Every structure is written in structure tokens, then in C-alpha cells.
Amino acid sequence: MKKIGFLSFGHWTPSPQSQARSAADVLLQSIDLAVAAEELGADGAYFRVHHFARQLASPFPLLAAVGAKTSRIEIGTAVIDMRYENPLYMIEDASAADLIARGRLQLGISRGSPEQVIDGWRYFGYQPGEGETDADMGRRHAEIFLDMLRGQGFAQPNPRPMFPNPPGLLRLEPLSEGLRERIWWGAGSNVTAVWAAKLGMNLQSSTLKSDETGEAFHIQQAAQIRAYRAAWKEAGHTREPRVSVSRSIFALVDDRDRAYFGNGQEEDQIGFIDERTRAIFGRGYAAEPDKLIEQLETDEAIAEADTLLLTVPNQLGVAYNAHVIESILTHVAPAMGWR
To answer: What angle do helix axes 87-100 and 60-69 make, rounded to 10 degrees?
Structure first.
């Protein structure tokens, strides 16, 4: 069995070819797609976060709205760039969204990826400390966030407060109990996956990672997942961790599918995410269902993960994206043993 959700980057463009031509279109359609996915029997609705781009950004209003409109589906991010975040204010936002969703939030965070502007986090009022890189700063923000989610009091109360205080040091409110165990780290390398395991975070691994061995993407990603699980066991955590991978997967079942994705990418790609980091980008899958099943059976990382996030082309509209999700749930998942 495997949990299957969708991951939307939330693009919009004024192009007449796009079904999402404004930020309002993307936000409202994201809610509608989550509702449709829940009705189809999917397990998760996840959203990417990018700043300074025509894409979904600050996620908590959207997560709260999806939580209010649905009742079963997991709601998450993949991922929030912690270089841009005030971790204490984020506790309040995340807890509020989780309470509205009645404990269904699955919050993916990370140190972030190359952005649309140079050092965009500086415009948000953040800068690395002495001797820190921006990646270090993102991980530091994450550690503060995780620590505060434990709910321990830390703030000295005012002796003459406006409202009565409970005894002792005060914590942030609202605080959603249990959210700490539903935080995921988006790891781009084996080292950061191991770091996430030690801190007790679940693991998100996308279609991009550092090219550490020169092997095929899915082999490197499977090795990353195994390293993560070994580190989790060594750390002595008492619960079972969760691991997700994301993929572009399209079952070609009608003429629309063939027109959009009939000439899909069949090979991994090599590139550089910055001047120093060689990266490998995982291939997409697009084929008739029987051939698609054969291809997916050879993907070692999908086999290692308990959760699969299907990246969806949100600009093609809610109806088509619901069709994409339904095609995988109907034509692929049962044959793969995921249902």
C-alpha cells in the first residue's frame, strides 16, 4: 500500500492557453483540485512555495482553506523555504491551519532552492549570522521551529497582563499538539537526509538531488532513503518515519493525454543548481498504462517510499488534473500494489 497525493507548483500566466491566469485563479483552483482529489480517493494535496514568482507563495491561507473544505485528505507543502521564515510566527500560522484541518497538516520544509532573485531572504529581513551560509540559516530556522513545536514555555509573562496568564513561562498559541511529528524535510543530498532523520523529521525527496555517485536518479534517491532510515533507527526514535518521493507520471488513456505528454522525457538530466552543485533531475513517465506499469516497477526509489506525490500541470485546469490523478488511481495503482 502507498499513499498517493498530488503536488502543485501553482503556476499562473496571463497566456490565453492557461486555465490559471491570475493568482486568484491558482488559489481557488487549488482548493477545488484538493476537493476533487479527495472525492477520487487520493490521499494528499501538497503545494510548492516560491517567492518573487508567479506561483504559490505564503501557504497557510491556502492550507487553512483546503482544510475547511475537505475532511479526509492530507494537506501539505513541498516545501517551505525556511530561509524566508520567522519560525515563531510560523508556529502560530501552522498550528492554526492544522487545527482548522483537524490534524491533517503534513508540513514540508527545507533550506530552499535557487530563487528568482538574488538573496531574496534579505528582503524578508533575514541574513545569515557570522560564519553562516544561507543554507545554515535555513536549517537554524528549522531547528528553532521544531523546538518551539514541542510546546514548552519560554517567554517571561508580564506581571500586569491584559488578560490572565496560566502559571509559569508562556508558549506560543495556538499550538497544535502532534504537529511536530508531521514535519518533513526536503533533502537534496544524503547528508541532509541523515540530518533530518536525527532531528526526527519525515523525509521528502523530489525529482532533483545532488549528483553524488553518477548513477541513475532513482538509484541515488533509493540510496538516500536507505541512509535516512538507517540514521533514523540509529537515533532511536520510537515511531516509524514517513518518506515521500515526487514524480511526473502520466497515463496516456485518451487523445488529450497523448497530445500533452505523448513525447515525454525518457531520461534523467544533469545540470547545476548553483555554481558548485552538480545535480541530477529525475526523468518523467508518460506511457500507455501497461507500459507505464512496467517502467514504474523498475523505479527503486518509488518502491522505497510510502508516499508518492504526483506533480500536476496546474495550468491545464482542475478538470484535466483530476483526470490525471484518477487515471493513476484507476489504471496504475492497483497493478502496482499501491491500492
So the answer is: 10
| End-to-end Cα distance, the chain | 6
pTM comes to 0.96
Pairing of strands 269-272, 278-281: antiparallel
Question: E strands along the chain, which residues?
Answer: 3-8, 44-47, 74-81, 105-110, 183-186, 202-205, 208-210, 243-247, 249-251, 269-272, 278-281, 285-287, 307-312
pLDDT at 265 over 70: no
- The strand order across the sheet containing 208-210 reads 208-210, 278-281, 269-272
pLDDT at 263: 85
Mean pLDDT of all residues in 283-305: 97
Q: Which of residues 157 and 264 earns the better pLDDT score?
A: 157
How many beta carbons lie within 10 A of that of residue 119, not counting itself?
12
Dihedral class, residue 52 (left if φ above 0, else alpha if ψ from -120 to 50, else beta) = left
Confidence of residue 113 (pLDDT cuts 50, 70, 90): confident
Sign, CA dihedral 73-310-12-93, equals positive
Determine the residue type at 27: L
Three-state secondary structure of 2-52: CEEEEEECCCCCCCCCCCCCCHHHHHHHHHHHHHHHHHHCCCEEEECCCCC
Instruction: For CA atoms 234, 306, 222, 277, give the dihedral sign.
Output: negative
Q: What is the average per-residue pLDDT within 326-331?
A: 98
Share of the chain above pLDDT 90, in %: 93
